[in-house]
Amino acid sequence: MRRGVSALLVSAALVWPGLPARAASPDGVFGRVDGDFAVAGGLGATFGPRGPRAAADLRARYMQMTGLFVTYEDGPLLGSKAEPERVLATGLEVRPLFLARWLLGGQLGLPLLDLVIDSLALELGASFAQPAGRSFAAKPGLQAGLGLEVPLFAKATGLFVGVHGGGRWSDTALGGGGPDTLGPSDRAGFVLVAIGWQQVLGGPVEARESRRP
Question: Rounded to an integer, what is the distance from CA 200 to the centroid of its chain?
């Protein structure tokens, strides 16, 4: 019985790289500080009122703690009747857990769990919606939400599945427009699911300082 359980654990460790990696990264960062900056891009779909929209998402991050994002969504690309048809959103994301847990020794030492937990992001930005048969809104609305990423390679650089969700409010909705004048293009929830690649860039500050004469 014990041999069977041991064999099962060994097999799982070989199949899923996130399980055994304490020794591979004893400091608990799993490549996140191999560089100061990281760029992450993904393709997927955003699910909202009346149908999905194809989505492209691009993010630039500093030390896996904070960064900027730009997202473009297009319903007609999928033959969808989504409302609004298209959305362009941009803003700031903040990941509050990574640095605090690392400095306080709160890392579990398991790459999958640590990377997923520390990827939790608070997102705030502006969104421009294009309702069916109309042009993009001239004034930006508000977008607020949360994000989470699951690394498929159990390290900072590599493939990941990202999930971002929240709400969007148009300038009209923020201005107190009545319920009779507000539709899905004015206030709605959304969930973005994408598969992407994150690349950590440059060397860490400590390494660059040590190379200076």
Answer: 15
Q: Which domain holds residue 83?
A: 37-211
Helices within 39-192 (DSSP H only): 97-103, 111-118, 171-174
State the Cα angle at 168 between 166 and 173, rounded to 5°: 145
Q: Please, what is the average pLDDT of the chain?
A: 85
Higher pLDDT, 130 or 181: 130
pTM here is 0.82
Residue 43 and residue 55 in contact, taking contact as beta carbons nearer than 8 Å: yes
CB neighbourhood size of 110 (10 A):
19
Instruction: Note the pLDDT tens digit of each residue in 98-132.
Output: 888 888 888 888 899 999 999 999 999 999 999 98
Residue 164: inside a domain: yes
Alpha-carbon gap, residue 24 to 181, rounded angstroms: 57
Other C-beta atoms closer than 10 Å to the C-beta of 36 total 16
Contact 71, 60 (CB under 8 A): no
Domain count, the chain: 1
Residue 29 in domain: no
Residue 28 included in any domain: no
Which domain CATH number covers 90? 2.40.160.20
Residue 187 belongs to some domain of the structure: yes
Tell me: the pLDDT tens digits for 38-59?
Answer: 999 999 999 999 999 999 999 9
